[in-house]
Amino acid sequence: MQRRDFIKSGAIVAGSVIIPFSRQENRKKIRLAILGTGNWGTNVIIPSALASGQFDIVALCDVNLEASKHAAEEVVRLGGKRPEMFTSYQQLYQMQGLGAVAIVTPTHWHALHFVAACRAGLHVFLEKPISYDIREGQAMLQAHRQARNVVQVDFPRVKGRVNDEVSAFIASGEAGKIRGAHANIYHHEGRLVEKPIPATIDFDAFCGPAPKSKFLCEPDQSIPMWRGQRAFSRGILFDWGIHYIHNARKVLGLGLPGEVSAAGGIVGHDAIDNPDHLDVRFDFGGLPVTWSHKTWGYVSPDPDRNYGIYYYGEKATIFAGDMGWEVHPVGSSAKTSYGDIRFNPGDPKVWNEYLAMTTSLWEEFAIQIGKNSNDGITNSLEDAYRTTAAVIYADIAYQVKAHLRIDADTMSILNNNEGQKLLKRTYRAPYAAFDLTEISGR
Hints:
The chain is of the alpha/beta class and 442 residues long. It has helices spanning 3-18, 39-51, 65-77, 89-92, 110-119, 134-147, 161-171, 203-207, 236-252, 348-371, 381-400, 417-421, 436-440, and strands at residues 30-35, 55-61, 84-86, 100-103, 123-126, 151-153, 178-186, 193-194, 216-217, 259-265, 277-284, 287-294, 307-313, 316-320, 325-329, 336-338, 404-405. It has a domain at 3-158 and 349-380: NAD(P)-binding Rossmann-like Domain (Rossmann fold). The chain is built from 13 helices and 17 strands. It has a 9-stranded mixed β-sheet with strand order 16-15-14-13-7-12-11-10-17, covered by helices on one side. It has a 6-stranded parallel β-sheet with strand order 3-2-1-4-5-6, sandwiched between helices. It has a two-stranded antiparallel ribbon with strand order 8-9.
């Protein structure tokens, strides 16, 4: 089952549960635009933003006209007014009275959309990963610091109880000194096929600054499945596993890895060009955090733990899923469980928990907009940039087949010239990548 199917099956049941609007109805709501109305934007961002009770969705923008139409219907179904429709983000950002934008576009568009939003004076709810490459992320940080706008990055799992409970358990000393961590996803991804471009999609605009690529879909779909294509994304660690790397950084108080190595390849998915199996080692000042994924049908001997993070302590090993965690003491076969560690978003109750986590991010975002401050933001742009950079370095290490050493001050790769060249991608004409000196001088 594809991630799209998990989201769709959960959202169908959850829609009537998380709406109608709640809390502080008398407070003036923030006028919000949704930029990117695909599966995530429609089935997660729209319902969670509305459920916060703090936003009016007044505009939608997408190069896929059918997706925009469906998203507008969803806004109305959930109690909002029919939003205005755009295909150009530049025109969208000129909308009178717009206060904030949710950037839910494919990753290769994030930097252009984000910097333009900063220059338009908009607050931003931004999807992860924040950028496609390292230098884009630096440009986004500079634009954000200049604009002084409020930015929340969509890592919803940190608003659940698991991270806090695992952090408290580790702090208590019951697990002993943590010697390392390991995160993994073992998930069977469906195959992709090339199809004719539908008349309702401006695929040239979809590709934008990325290389013009094939139009790939699932066999029964007609929307681009861009996560499998290197032009638009860097694969499953970059798009999905990043949540677990972010969780591990939060729980263990980690910064940026100083060294990264990776090995993997493609053995089961001939249509994709991102690795369908990958093993990574991040070195955070001597603390190893490792990653593994297999997406071509691998059957784990321990399927309950196919999605999540192991924390290895001297006294106990902890496994943390999205909705539960468990402790395995050293020298004992006994375990203590706190909730359900299995990944099961197809369960309506579980899916509503995911939506509640995202809604909590929106509530926090609204509060901080009211204060015009990022001090209370859980997922700041700066912190999300460190997580994004970590998974970008992992992909670069995979591409150049080398162990990389990172300079935390410049974000440069110290020991590999080929890897250094991959810190910034050349944009397709007529799109122009950001000049960092130009941005800092504005």
